[in-house]
Amino acid sequence: MVALACFTTGAGIVTGAADYVKGIFKESQKAYIITAFISCVLGVLIGHFEVSFIIKVAVPALMFIYPITIILILLNVVSNRWTSSTVFRGVVLVTFLFSIPDFLGALNLGDFLKPITQWIPLSSQSLGWVIPAVLTFILLNIFKLKLAPNIIEPSVS
To answer: Of 8, 39, 7, 9, nearest to 21 (Cα)?
Structure first.
């Protein structure tokens, strides 16, 4: 099961990356093939390292990417009434900013941020971005509904 899960994840990453690059290069099939080939070669090369090394290298990137990904998923699940483009941008920006200490901590560079992060709730569990993101979501919606009801803004879908 683990091998099947890894294979399907790898195939999804390779085809997703190749399809993205294909779109950048005006639907070029050559760009798709080259990107897929390079991704497969990189996957084989990286696969030769020990799992502990791969995890050690991946954790900082994941500490940076996951909070933003989680917020984007949650914002896309919420009704369009509550997720205008301003709310999207604000919540993602705050999540980005408050995930930086977790990223630096994963790189063992976060010691100078200790005086600041000790005041951020849940930062000791690497979730310091959660409460600021939720508060930003609430405050921007209050602003949108109460203080600026005449501003018509297209919602993000």
So the answer is: 39
CB atoms within 10 A of CB 14: 18
pTM, two decimals, is 0.68
Could you report the per-residue pLDDT of 17-57, keeping only the tens digit for each?
999 999 999 999 999 999 999 999 998 998 899 989 988 88
For residue 103, give Cα distances in angstroms to 57, 69, 73, 135, 142: 12, 14, 20, 21, 30
Handedness of CA 110, 123, 92, 152 (dihedral sign): negative
Cβ atoms of 72 and 92 closer than 8 Å: yes
Report the alpha-carbon distance of residue 57 to residue 113 in Å, rounded.
Answer: 21
Query: Quick one: 86 exposed, middle or buried, by C-beta within 10 A (0-12, 13-18, 19+)?
Result: middle
**What single-letter amino acid sits at 97?**
L
Which two three-digit tokens encode residue 146?
């109460």
**C-beta separation of 60 from 98 below 8 A:** no
